[in-house]
Amino acid sequence: MTATALAAAVPLSLTTATDAGAAGDHPIVFARYTATAPIEDLYALSPSGGTPVQLTHTSGVSDVMPSWSPDGKRVAFVRYGSGGAIDGIWTMKTTGGGLKAVPGTRGAADPAWSPDGKRIAYAKPVGTQREIYVADIDGAPATRLTHTAADDLHPTWSPDGKYLAFNRADASGHSRVMRIRLSTLAQTAVTASGSHDWTPDWSHGNRIAFSRVDSSGFARLYLVRPDGSGLHRITTARRNDKNPSWSPDGSRLVFTRGGTDDADPEHLYLVRADGTGLTQLTKTDSHDLEADWRP
User: Fold this and answer.
1) DSSP β-bridge partners for residue 255
2) Which residues pair with 120 in a beta bridge?
3) Helix, strand, or coil here: 154?
4) Cis omega before residue 141 (within 30°)?
5) pTM, two decimal places
6) What is the dihedral of CA 53, 198, 129, 59, to 10 degrees?
7) pLDDT(238) > 70
């Protein structure tokens, strides 16, 4: 789809997603598909609820994995075709149009905007595994940060922009949260080996939320400090909770809760960081995924 066609398809603004909320009510962007409309598009929704605003209307390609820019004026996302080939990372204005490809990101996924808005981190295939890269938002110069035989996925920035956390999946099917210092590329394990930890998100309050498949066999949300201390679980349902994203003030999380198989709908939920105040945010017969809360 051309940039011109997308610009015509995107709503003029997100004000309809935010006017119903309180002052400072920052919207949530997410990907949605349904059984009858399997192409994924991006939507925005107020954390106060209401009707989501559709941001992309593409045919033949899916738009997924959205990430807000720090100033809330652009969204980075991944586009892939019906055959599953990843077209790469793109950015667009939330006011409509301004579609730009990030050069050098063909095949890349999991975009994460740096706190200063100048760089983007992502996971990109190298041979049979994926590694973490950082590039200027215009795509250059791209720096490869990890060199392992494992899959390194889903980078997330520390509030000061000096570190990334990500999950490292090995050949045995285990995955743990790792931390890398950008200045030295020194890596430290945040969670234990033998875990099943995925999709970390680093808060402004310096805590990392992630999804763990624990001894229950279900994915639950956990919190941990960047040094690996203070690990505790905040959701306990016999459902699968994944893709947590922090609110700007670090008091709440938005996440996807789904059933035990792909036939069940997946909805967005909110929860306080202490595990209380669970609220279902979306309720349609859809799969609502990969939410990102505007900074």
Assistant:
1) 269
2) 113, 135
3) strand
4) yes
5) 0.90
6) -20
7) yes
